[in-house]
Amino acid sequence: MAGSPASNCSNTLVDHVILDLDGTLIDTETLLDEVYAKIVWKYGKKWEWDGIGLIKRLGKRPLEVAASLVEDYELPCTADELLEESLSHVETMWSRAKALPGATRLLKHLRAHKIPIGLASNSPAKNIRSKLAYQPGWLESFKVIVAGDEVKEGKPSPEMTGVIAGKAAGMKVVAVPSIPSKIARTLYSGADSVLNSLLDFRPELWGLPPFQDWVGKALPIEPWCLGGPVIKGFGRGSKVLGIPTANLPTAALGSQLSQHVCGIYLGWAGLSNRGVYKIVMSVGWNPFFDNAAKTVEPWLLHDFPDDFYGEELRLIVVGYIRPEANFSSLELLIERIHEDAEIAKAALDLLPFSSYQDDKFLTTPLAKQ
User: Fold this and answer.
1) Is 297 a catalytic residue?
2) CA-to-CA dists, residue 119 to 38, 51, 181, angstroms
3) Is 22 a catalytic residue?
4) Average pLDDT of each block of 10 consecutive residues along the chain (369 residues)?
5) For the chain: N or C, fewer Cβ within 10 A?
6) In sequence order, what are the beta bridge partners of 267?
């Protein structure tokens, strides 16, 4: 994301915004990974989901991506052949590409305030318009669209706006990478700011009109539901933090976890034969403990007299509090977790959050839904 300072204002004011598409506004990486995984499997290779390959592919044109995959996986085909095969699959999949958290909100906000929006993507023009067509109201949002096949050189060439090119052009640049934040902050150190997601973008910091949709200290989001049996976690909730979390088996939540950005959320929990409770919940790698995998760790804001391992837990996540963060000490981490809990308790008494307390999902066994 890049913006140019207004010529007749202070350098902190922005008079237009240029956005990237893939991995910033819509989640196409998940679909592309599905296709690439099938192709490399066909050649007897195992697709690596560790994110390292994604870093190498970020910002590259389709043929460059294909060449990288042929080399990395030692595939017995050319880059052109791999590209042709992958395109035959993905062109029918754009309808499944989902808007990333905060994307539609940002576009509506900029349009409402008449801020001109441009789109710069390394994707071919045909693919860009196909992707945008499935997102209501998006295509008409952009005053200018520049595609990868309309310039001689793709990002980071100044012909195509990226972090490096944006800075070289005197723009303010905000990076919103679709990779773990620890890696992203190193990879995009040249940006003025690196965010976990567009949910964390604060327009007022860049001379743009502020959002007015926060309720208390929480942001309403499109609700998402998940559930499963409560399992034993890392053993640090009660023992280390003094905060008993109700862990869910992450293996069964893989597809859901990939759709949601890391951060601290609030919502409601239904526990079989016990009732409905307020929750504050972390989603991510918990950088203080340096998790090896992305996890979901809800804290039911209620004092239970005993453990409830094995009981069915159902969650409705309805609000966002803040991005995932690291802390210099355990004491600061615990202090912030309790602050998040107080924010969640207060916000869940307010509309629209409170309206989900009686949702049938919370009280209906998953097997019967």
Assistant:
1) yes
2) 30, 25, 24
3) yes
4) 58 81 88 88 83 65 88 94 89 87 96 95 89 94 91 64 79 80 67 91 94 96 90 64 80 66 94 91 82 82 87 94 92 94 98 96 71
5) C
6) 279, 317
Determine the straight-line distance between the first and last CA of the chain, rounded to whole angstroms: 41
Residue 213 annotated to the active site: no
Inter-CA distances, 109 with 78, 208, 218, Å: 44, 10, 18
Which of 27, 192, 200, 297 is labelled catalytic?
297
The 3-state secondary structure of 287-298 reads CCCCCCCCEEEE
Q: What is the pLDDT of residues 56-66, one digit of tens each?
A: 677 677 888 89
Identity of the residue numbered 334:
I
Smallest CA-to-CA distance from 202 within 323, 335, 119 is with 323
Give, in degrees to the nearest 5, the angle at Cα 149 between 144 and 152.
Answer: 100
- Catalytic one of 22, 29, 200, 340: 22
Q: Which of 20, 29, 324, 340 is catalytic?
A: 20
Q: What is the pTM of this model?
A: 0.84
Contacts of 158 (CB under 8 A, 6+ apart): 165, 168, 169
Helix residue ranges, H only, 43-135: 52-57, 62-72, 79-90, 103-112, 125-133
